[in-house]
Each structure stands twice: as structure tokens, then as C-alpha cells.
Write a structure and sequence with these properties.
The chain has 483 residues and is mainly alpha-helical. It is built from 18 helices and eleven strands. The strands form four sheets. A four-stranded antiparallel β-sheet has the order 3-4-7-8. A three-stranded antiparallel β-sheet has the order 9-10-11. A two-stranded antiparallel sheet has the order 1-2.
């Protein structure tokens, strides 16, 4: 028997493999760097995206904490006066027809004027998941000396606080404290079958009213259908025409999503840590003052507890052993849960204070027949393997994405599932390099689809190179935010 195929690689070979992967991932991030921020993909996504930049900063901190700080600062500089962080910050050097919806569709400087859209840069008017405080804290921890010298936390803190305040107030459409998304693009998992029922009430825009630039760079079988895209356009146009006004009575689409809210809770925890760190540096005579920072941090920690309770009360479904989306526009005083199994329902594993048994149930669901981790699936699919809408290639309807898998991995680590986390880490690293750092991959075969040289795929691969399981023994600093 040729034992070379069954033995583990030698330490020296593993080191070479890690070095090659690091070099290739770094090359992707260099190629996508614009001088102030990183595009997800030069061809398909030639602007700055909100949660992409947060995940990219998490990986960039291992190459250049300075660049990681710039990534976040550039994004937050485009924040609106009402606190929202737009999901796209447009580069005015990119031709209008390179991406749709383009700046002339969103009209942020005119339609968004009442909500405080910046005049100096054009943006979209919707948001994406709030990973930013978490990213800022991890970037700070990568080089605390540089961070303090540049007053990084002091500069981003008020913007992050305003961002969270916006989500917790203006987006509390259900009245229970959770933030609602008003468009599938806001949740980030654009084309998930979890949106099919809520979207069915939306009349698609006329096909001739827009031209899809995404099909210039991606195969139609990988992308949303024309009908779904027409619904996205209709929702965005109606929100724009309302001048981006929020409110429970407005809009045909309003959903409480478990991943969006879990990331808000995790970022609230990170923002409390940021305020603790600033309080350590501040003198009592310096506004806002050490006492105020400490009080704010305490309030945020209390809020994470109440928000976690609300998340469980409103979105946990024991029959599915999974968190589900709540469609606030469905009939009934509280809407109704959407009975579709998406990876969004596994992301709350990142929260340390889930009720007894809930985390264990989520792990069983992740490894069970619907998601197949460790069995038929190498990576966690974005949608139920047994669901009627499962498609291993089509955008968020089955493919595995690196950011959601990274989050699930962090949750597995937190709850002591280190062997499963190690296996997922190795599968992610292998898929990243063999797919050419693809945007997403088939969860069973790791065959790549979408864009190649994708920003957060490369960035999170870099981060996973530093995740060798030592957190279970040594308590790595970057793991503290998850503990």
C-alpha cells in the first residue's frame, strides 16, 4: 500500500503550504486595494461594500494593521447623519455602467439629503450587517500601540455608536428591540430562499427599467433570476422615493433576521470593549469622560443580554432546532416565522449567552441532514441541502460562503467543538486556494462559482491561518471578543 496518501503532511510541508496560501491571499488583497479601501472584486464589485470591508479588515490586520484601520475609516467616513452606514460607497472614477444599481439610481445626495447623506461622496441608501465594531476591536488588538498612536478607537467610536443607535431605534420595526432589514441586500444573503415568501408580495420592476451589469461578469445560473432582481430593484426604488425614511408602516418588506441581529449583538459586545479601552486612556476631564464611557460600556453589556433574550424569544424555533427569519409584513400582530432553513439561523452560535441546550441543538443541526457539515458537506451550505430550492451554484441558494462559514467556525470554537472547528478551518483553507479564492463554492465539492480573487475569501483565509486551535489553551487576544 502507498501510505503517502494516508499520512498527514510533514511539518515542513505544512509550513510551505501555509506560506504559499498566505502569499496568494495577500496578492488578492493587494490587487483589490484602491489606495484607501479594498473592492470585493475588480470586475464584478468595483466599489466599497460595507460588510465586505469589515471582514476584509479582520484579515488585513495580519498583513497591515494600518491598512485595516484605513479600510474601516474610509467606510465610516461615508456614514449618513442619521447614523446608517451605507452598503456601498461608490468610487466616482468607476464608470456608471460598471455596476447596477449605480449612483444615479440611488441619488443619495438628493433623495438622502433629509437623512443626512454625505455631500462629498455618493452611496447607496440601504445598509448591511453590522460587523464593524467587531472588526474595529480586532484591528485594534492586532497592534494596540499603533492604534493608540493614531487615536483609531477614539476616531471610530462615535461613528460606531451612532450606527448602532440607528439600528436599535429607527430599525426596531417589530417593537421588540431587534433590528429589521427592509431589503434582502441589507441582510447580505441576497438571494436566499428565506426571502421568497416575503418577496412574493413585491411586484418586480419592468425588465426594461434596468440593465443587470452582474451578468456581464457572472454566469446566469450562478446569479439571481431576472424576476428576483426585478423585485430587488422595485424595493430599492420605493425606499429611495420615500427619501430613505424608516418606519413600521412603510415598505412591503421588513424582516427580523437572526444573523443580522446576532452580529449586532456581537458588535455591541465589541463596542463595550472599545469603550472600556477608551476609558482606560481618558482622563476624567476629557469629554465624554471616563465615567460616561464606563457607564456606556455597562449599558451595552446589559443590552446584549436583553437582545439575546429577544432573539431567542422571537426567532428560535425548537421544531427546526434553528433560528428562523420573522416576516413582519405577514398577517398577524407579530408577523410569522419563515419555515426555511438558511445558514443565517446558525450564525447566532457566535453569541456566548445562548440558553442551555440551544448551542448544542445548533451544532446538531449544522451536522445533521439539512446542513451536512462533516458528512455530505465539506462546508456549511447557505441553504438546506434537502430544501426544495437548494441549488449548489446559485447565489445564496445553496453555495457555501467563506464569511458565514468563518462565523460558524467561531461559534463552534466558543462552544468547545474544537475538532469540528479544526475540520471546518482546514476545509475552508483548502477550498480558498483550490478555487482561486472564489466568491462562493459548492458546499459538497468546493467547486468555485461567482467572482475569483474575492476580497473576504482571501482576507478570512489569512485570518484562519492564525486560527490553529490554540485559543482553547492560551486564550488568544483576538478570541476574547467571542468569549
Amino acid at each position: 500500500m502507498d501510505r503517502s496518501t494516508t499520512t498527514r503532511p510533514s511539518a515542513s510541508r505544512a509550513a510551505v503550504t501555509r506560506r504559499v496560501l498566505r502569499e496568494r491571499a495577500a496578492a488578492v488583497l493587494r490587487a483589490n486595494w484602491t489606495g484607501t479601501s479594498t473592492v470585493p472584486s475588480r470586475a464584478l464589485y468595483p466599489h466599497q461594500w460595507s460588510w465586505d470591508s469589515a471582514f476584509i479588515a479582520i484579515g488585513l490586520r495580519h498583513l497591515s494593521p494600518l491598512r485595516a484601520q484605513s479600510e474601516l475609516a474610509t467606510l465610516l467616513a461615508a456614514q449618513w447623519g442619521d447614523g446608517r452606514v451605507p452598503h456601498i460607497v461608490f468610487n466616482d472614477a468607476v464608470p456608471l455602467d460598471a455596476y447596477f444599481p449605480s449612483p444615479d439610481f440611488w441619488r443619495s445626495t438628493t433623495a438622502g439629503r433629509g437623512a443626512g447623506a454625505p455631500a462629498a461622496v455618493q452611496t447607496s441608501g440601504i445598509v448591511q450587517p453590522p460587523v464593524h465594531a467587531l472588526a474595529a476591536w480586532l484591528v485594534h488588538r492586532a497592534d494596540p500601540g499603533l492604534s493608540r498612536a493614531r487615536s483609531f478607537l477614539a476616531r471610530v467610536h462615535p461613528r460606531l455608536a451612532a450606527w448602532h443607535h440607528y439600528l436599535l431605534s429607527a430599525r426596531n420595526a417589530g417593537g421588540a428591540g431587534l433590528a429589521a432589514v427592509l431589503h434582502p441586500w441589507e441582510q447580505g444573503m441576497d438571494n436566499s430562499p428565506c426571502w421568497d415568501a416575503p418577496l412574493s408580495r413585491v411586484e418586480p420592476a419592468e425588465p426594461g427599467a434596468f440593465r443587470r451589469a452582474d451578468l456581464d461578469h457572472g454566469a446566469p445560473e450562478d446569479r439571481p433570476t431576472d424576476a428576483d432582481y426585478g423585485r430587488y430593484v422595485r424595493l430599492a426604488a420605493e425606499y429611495r422615493d420615500r427619501r430613505y425614511a424608516d418606519g413600521d408602516g412603510l415598505g412591503a418588506f421588513a424582516v427580523e433576521d437572526p444573523a443580522f441581529n446576532a452580529l449586532l449583538i456581537a458588535s455591541e459586545r465589541a463596542l463595550a470593549r472599545i469603550e472600556d479601552a477608551l476609558a482606560m486612556e481618558a482622563g476624567d476631564e476629557v469629554p465624554p469622560g471616563k465615567a460616561q464611557l464606563k457607564e456606556s460600556a455597562r449599558e451595552r453589556r446589559e443590552r446584549t443580554e436583553t437582545l439575546t433574550e429577544a432573539l431567542v424569544a422571537r426567532l428560535w424555533d425548537p421544531r427546526h432546532a434553528l433560528f428562523l427569519c420573522r416576516d413582519l409584513r405577514a398577517p398577524g400582530p407579530a408577523g410569522e416565522l419563515v419555515p426555511e432553513r438558511g445558514v443565517t439561523g446558525l450564525v447566532p452560535l457566535v453569541l456566548p449567552a445562548l440558553p442551555p441546550g440551544t448551542a448544542a441543538a445548533l451544532v446538531r443541526t449544522a451536522c445533521g441532514p439539512h446542513f451536512g457539515l462533516g458528512g455530505p458537506a465539506r462546508l456549511v451550505p447557505s441553504y438546506d441541502l434537502r430544501g426544495p430550492a437548494f441549488d449548489p451554484r446559485r447565489y445564496w441558494r445553496g453555495p457555501a460562503w467563506f464569511n458565514t462559514n468563518w462565523l460558524v467556525l467561531k461559534g463552534l470554537r466558543m462552544y468547545g467543538e474544537h475538532e469540528r472547528a479544526d475540520g471546518l478551518r482546514d476545509a475552508l483553507l483548502d477550498a480558498a486556494v483550490t478555487s482561486g479564492f472564489a466568491e462562493y463554492v459548492d458546499p459538497r465539492t468546493a467547486r468555485g462559482s461567482g467572482a475569483r480573487g474575492f476580497g473576504w475569501t482571501a482576507a478570512l483565509a489569512l485570518d484562519l491561518l492564525h486560527d490553529d486551535g490554540r485559543s482553547r489553551r492560551d486564550g488568544l487576544p483576538e478570541e476574547e471578543v467571542w468569549a
